[in-house]
Every structure is written in C-alpha cells, then in structure tokens.
Amino acid sequence: MGCRALQLLLLAFLALGAALAVRPALRALGSLHLPTNPTSRPAVAKNYSVLYFQQKVDHFGFNTEKTFKQRYLIADKHWRKDGGTILFYTGNEGDIIWFCNNTGFMWDVAEELKAMLVFAEHRYYGESLPFGNNSFKDFRHLNFLTSEQALADFAELIKHLKRTIPGAENQPVIALGGSYGGMLAAWFRMKYPHMVVGALAASAPIWQFEDLVPCGVFMKIVTTDFSKSGPNCSESIRKSWGAITRLSNTGTGLRWLTEELHLCSPLTSPDIQQLKDWISETWVNLAMVDYPYASNFLQPLPAWPVKVVCQYLKNPDVSDTVLVQNIFQALNVYYNHSGQVKCLNISETATSNLGSLGWSYQACTEIVMPFCTNGIDDMFEPHLWNLREYSDDCLKQWGVTPRPSWITTMYGGKNISSHSNIVFSNGELDPWSGGGVTKDITDTLVAVTIAEGAHHLDLRANNAFDPESVLVARSLEVKHMKQWIGDFYKMARKHH
Q1: Does residue 317 carry a catalytic annotation?
Q2: Active site includes 455?
Q3: In a 10 Å sphere around its CB, with 0-12 CB exposed, 13-18 middle and 19+ buried, how is residue 342 labelled?
Q4: Residue 81's closest CA among 198, 155, 170?
Q5: pLDDT in tens, 426-454
C-alpha cells in the first residue's frame, strides 16, 4: 500500500464521519469519520431547526467580500434562559445531520445542563459549500478549506447566536466534537478561549502529526484489538497477505479469488494491491466501531464485531485456500451482516461519497498524519512512511504540496500546557487513541480513558449494553462541564 493510500485509509477512519470515494489508490486510508450513506439516518429523527448563516469565504483577507451559507442545527427544548448553557458541536468532515444523529450524548445531557444544542456544519461539507457546485473544482476554489477558517466560522456563528437569541448573550458555551470534530473542539478552546468556557474533545488525535507519536502506533492498536478478541486472530490476518499473493500468482488463482471472496468484478493482477488495501481498511473500520452493541455507524454490525470476526480466524496453520475462505467469512460479518448483499465491491468499504473529496484535500494540505506498518508489531504488510511519495500524490491529485509541520506550528503540538478546560477522552480499543492525549497534562487539561471504548463511544447515546467504563467517563465529562458552567456564573456574579 502506498504511503498516501495508507494515510488516506487511516484518515478515512478519523472521521468516522467522512467518506471515501476518491480514486482507489487514495481511498485506502479514508477520512477520520466514515459516515454512512445519508439515506441510512437513524429512524429517531431528532427535533431541531435547520438554519443558515452568511459566512465570509475568507476570514483572513480583506480583498473579497464573498460569502456563503453555513448550515447549522439548533435544539432548544431543554434550554433555560436563566442559568442555562450552550453546547456547541464543532462539525467535522461530513453532513452535519449525520453527526447530530450520531451524537446522542449531547441530547442525553441537555436537560441536566439546561442546554441549547447547536450543531455547526464544517465549510465544504454537507450543504455548506463556499462555491456551490464549483467548490471542489480546483485548488483555487479549495484554498479556503482549512481548520483555521472553520474555527473562525464557529466563532462568528457563536457571536451571531449571542447577538440574536434573547437570553443567550450572557451564557457559557462549551465546544464538543468527536474525531476531527474533537480536534476542532480542542483547537477552538485554544484559539478562542473567550468564546467557549471549555471543550470536550472525544477521540481527537491531535498528536498524530510529524513525529509527536510513532507512525506505527495506529496499526499496532488495530492489531491488539484483534489479538485480544480471539486466539490467533491477528496471526491469521498477518499470514493471509502471503496467501493472497501466492494464490494470485497461480494460473487460475485470480478467478478462484474472485469467486471465493464473492467479488462483484473479476480480479486482474494489478487489482491485488487494491484488494489488500480494501481488506486492511475493513479491519481498521472494525476496530474503530468495535461497539458493545449492534450498530450501523459504518455498516449494520453485530455487538463486539471484532470478536465475531475472530471466530472465523482461530487457525492460522491451514492451507492458503482455507485461510482465504476463512478471511471471506470474516469479511462477510462486516459487509453482509444483514445477509442481503449479493457480492462484495472492493472499491467501497462503508461510505457514500459524503465528505471524501474535501477530506482528501485536507489530508494533502495541513492534516498530514504519518502512518506506517512493519508487519512485526502489527498484522499488516510492511509500509514505510514516505513524505516525498505522499507529496507527489497530492501534487498530482490537487496541485498542492502538504505542509506537515503547520498543524504543530498553529496549535502547539505537545506544548499546550498554557491552555485550560479541555477534557480529552479516548477509548483503549480505538486506533486513534495512539495520537490522542491519554494522560493529564495539567489540572484542567485532563484525559479520560475508556477501557472498553472504540471510536468516540462516549459521544454516542446511552445504551443498555454500555460498559461501566463509558458510564464513568460520561459522568466525569458532565462533572467537568458543570464545573466550567459554575465558574462562569460565579465570575459573572462577581462582575455585577
């Protein structure tokens, strides 16, 4: 797998919100988010109003007055004008309605915190397109797709809400987000501390940049998830790559692989790498959404899906053909849990083309996250991180060159102890936790760890099958939020 492919594959995950439908080589590492197809929204439609706000296309230049409509959602059923609060979701790489429906935690705590819920859509995603249908035309139109511009949008929107909603003006705002949205929530508190009293950054890999963490940490955690979920499970996967290669080199091997894996179109020799990337991405997605109950975040899946997959991979010491047949059974858990699927398509893993183009561009400019594998500490084929190859791909695709150091220059890397009031939550099963803040930095920059948690499990709605560790995490998060709100009102009384 090429560098850029691996990176995109992984990034696809980040989003657990955005989708990847870019060219196959790039698709491999997807977005942080991988949202599902917008048509499969949860049946429980939440009660919210859909609104639009005119934003400047460029907050940092003075020669253009061009504006666009940013979509945002508001739910104020439990909001109180006296002593209330505003919970502000910093939208990430995809349709904001999808994130709204997958962030049940905010709905669950609204009454307790007397909170107005605001979900702000990130520019260039969903309906918030600065240049309409031309937004992805070329790098000139994409030039305003940066985290800094998105944060400025959020700041302007909060100012607008406080100006126009009677009672909101003197209330505390808390930023919340998951994955890339969690990174934005943390960065928003760092850059605009006068706008929000604190931030909950769930599964936010703010250190997955440059050499702040080893490039192999992500795939190592994926591997640990599989090795803990069943005997010999990761070993079977590690051996499967060689089996696929050997079978593809025999006379009838490609046809046999096509049939045994129930693929929608016949494999040719050049497809073998794409096949392996697709299988790798499937294992990564499973690790990210290894939830304790059935869910359909990326695909309809059973509870603890990695354990279910590992039941088929108990024996690594079988012939190549049997191993590949076992791999098919395992893949089928992810792609065909419902039993409705006729064949498997190696150009898609989970998503509609929700936010894939925008994310691919962001990964080619400032969101440059180094990923690598060595095949020893992880169950994947070895791939080094190669910035030059990565850059060349970006130049070819978007006409831009990545700036791998810019995020650390902009947001401080590990030197963030001068900030305050950020809760970083991470699940130990979540591969993104490797780039997250997992130890307290100061008394007010705190880490909450969820032993049985996959990707931002804590932001999902309360569920009867939630493990104790996520219940404890949520109660800690609420405790911190109440502290920030209390401090805000104490200060306000003092000034009166």
Answers
A1: no
A2: yes
A3: exposed
A4: 170
A5: 999 999 999 999 999 999 999 999 999 99
